[in-house]
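Support request, please re-run this one:
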Amino acid sequence: MTLESIWIVIGIFLGSSLILVGMILLNQYRLRRQDQRQKWADDYLIDRFLHNTFHKRRVSWSELLMALVRISEQVYFSVETKQQIYFMFQEAGTIQKTLRQLRSFSPFIRKRASQILACFDSSEIRKNLTRALKIEKLEHVKLYLLNALKNKIDQHVLKSIIDSIVGSRRYYQSRLIGILERHLLKVEAHLQNIFKRPEMEIKEVFVDLTNIYYREEFKPILTEELAAIERYLAGEFHPTFSSLKKTRVTRLYYQVLRALANVYDTPLNDPKYLGSSDPEIVKIATDSFSSVSDIQSISMLMTYADGSDRDDIRAQSILRMIEADRRLLDELVDRFSKITDTEQKSLLAQVLSHKIEYLILKFIKKDAQRLTEIIHLMIDRGHTADLIDFLNQKQPQETLRLFQTILQPLILEHPTFQQEMTEYLQAERLTLFGLKKTDPISPAKPVSLSETKKTRWLVILLVISLIILPLTYLIIISVRQESLNFWEMVADYIVSINRWFIVYYLSVNGLYLILALFSLFGSIKQNRLWSIKTNDLLFEEGMLPSISIIAPAYNEEKSIVESVNSLLNLNYPNFEVIVVNDGSKDQTLQELIDHFQLERKNFRLNEKIPTQPIKAIYRNRYLPSLMVVDKLNGGKADALNVGINLAKADYICGIDADSILEKDSLLKLMSSMLDHDRITLALGGSIVPVNGSIVDHGQIEAIGLGKSALVRFQTIEYLRAFNISRTGFSSLRSLLIVSGAFGLFEKRILTEVGGYLTVSSLKKNTVGEDMELVVRITRRALEMHLKFRVDYIGHARCHTEVPEERKSLFRQRNRWQRGLVDILSYHRKMIFNPKYKQPGLIGMPYFFIFEMMGPLLEIQAYFAIFIGIIFGLLNAMILLLLLFVTVIMGIFLSLFSLFINEMDRRTYSWKDIRLLVLYAILENFGWRQLISLYRVKGYLSSLKETHVWGQMNRIGFKK
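Re-run finished. Output below.
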């Protein structure tokens, strides 16, 4: 290669960089122009068909069609108006063109055609949509066709819908059921004729529909199906069930029982249901009693009390009966002293623990002995949250004196209750019982397994990284058989390192260029798919799975309320928020209690994943979607595992407590499931520094760029990491990291693999719990030969605070590198292993070579560059090549990532974009080298791993 050719390449990249800057700035104009054309299209349709005002058409028919899709969600058109709109588009030829698009080779075009045709109602359109559903092979395209047909269901359409179920996944079936639930009642259909088929998928959908759609003729079919399932579960052969997994048949069994109990009023009072060892069957059976509120039903439920977690289910059922008929409470209290069975008495005490005020009114003057007995049993069985809450409220002195008499001897008998009192009772009440505030006793934390093998592996790699360059050089000069003196050899060695470094950086940036191209096409594809999704589709019953958002919090008092408010106000159809206070030493918990008016509640935890102990759970009855958990400190991963144990949804979304999601972030993330037929195991969104942005009541009012140079360098770094690396690896099916600040996982796979890696759950701690979990899930899925996806959705954004101090940044990067090293060591079996396909042959080798070993080699190369320049050992060609591979290519890639970020929306202002362009250049002169030093320090720290996170100083959100 000549100097002239190098200058030409540099010129090409510099010219391309200038073009990128121009495209970024021009894109601002393009987006404004796009918004203007959308407004013209919307105004044209509204004016013509609602205001009867005709204007000249300024947009294409295709733009008008998409405008119709948008407007149809917000504006009601009469039947006559709909016909006029239909005739207008038919005369223009767009209806026929769209119908032909249903047969396109592109799934995207078929989906878009379905969304457009959903706006019209004609026999021709219904016929074409039905035909398309019959021949469609992709389930995610079928969902769009179903959405288009949901308002056009007749007997013929229904038969085609049911036919589409056969051979489908449960994911498709559940969404189909949601559509039928809302739209089937609008038509008369002979369902019993359709469902007399042997296929399991048909049986499942039929039974699910019977849970929401009453018809008397369904009851004998359900009864017959119940008998067949019970015979099979008892060991009898069944032509359909015997070829399936037992869990699938059991799920059908639950649904049949629910339908009979809840829809067809069939009491499940048989002992095989009420006394079952399966909590789900017990719940279904006890729920069937709730509609009949009498003392006989309560007595029957109490006979099955056994002290297990199934008693919680029985207690809730009894409470519902009491709420329906308050007179039952008097009868239960009167029976308390007559009950001799210990477990029944305990169940009744659990019920009465929710009615403390009633007990006081009934017994305070009449029968203090019975009150004492009931309270004693409550304390003995741990049902004390409502009791302590009652004592904290303002009470008459007479009542307090009575409780002082009752509780003082019980406090001495029950150390656990005493500890609860000292921790949760107000200070002025403690003196009444002779107690003082004390810190909770923390149990000894489990110890992590020995890291000897890991340390040995890292030491070997460190030695190799130190000797590989000089050893390679010695081999080369021995082959060349050159005679050099010591100083000549040193000079030649320095020059050789620089040449190797050129090749190394050319490889790294070359890989990034390939990833950048994949990222560009991947981002365009994601944006196009999002553009055709409507609220009518996304908020259809059951279309998107439920989510449990888990926010671990440790010393987050400055931002916790804003963060939780932002989570509670997300635009998503079905979610809950679980905030896990991981033993904070500041006022994080109290801020939450005060702001959301939370009350401590009794709980019984089904601990699927071992964790550090939970101290308390707080709820507010008027905010059912919020739960706050207080636990002993165990680290972020342990807090997430607690949330998984308590979560009720299909998917788990882990988010940092100092992070704020954009209002539609969850919707964008989860809606990507409608574009794939593979099982979604993990999803990640984009992380944007919140420093410099304006936040009001948990909402991002304006995105800004922090004033600190440290923040601006990190912003460029985040743009490159997310917009190029994550999207690119995702396109190659090699994505192995989902950011802990905003990551989503299927709950089932989480519990199967044991949750996040902690010493409590899997006998090992790590500070890279987010990446480690993705690697472990991927490994498990590949070993099970699942068809799955781990994906990154770039336009689903989460805003989080990044370090503004050098010490905090150093601790963060040190932790990241220690986490990476730990993960690669723990899963080193996957590296270069073809058994693990793309993750083993692309993802893991990339992280091993360039992210873990790379910094150890880069530091040596930086030293060689410095020596070479000082002593004039490097010629013009080497210097130019070094400039090209380290600076010019780096600038181009950073600008490319900024272009991708601004491609679909205006994120930053003109001023901020100009600053980011400047910092994309400056970061190559010192920032990257500093980060490499931090990585080397992180590697060395891994040799004496302590799994300590290190605290980042928070400044809170700008308002």
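The first helix runs from residue 3 to 49. Residues 891 and 920 are 6 Å apart (CA to CA).
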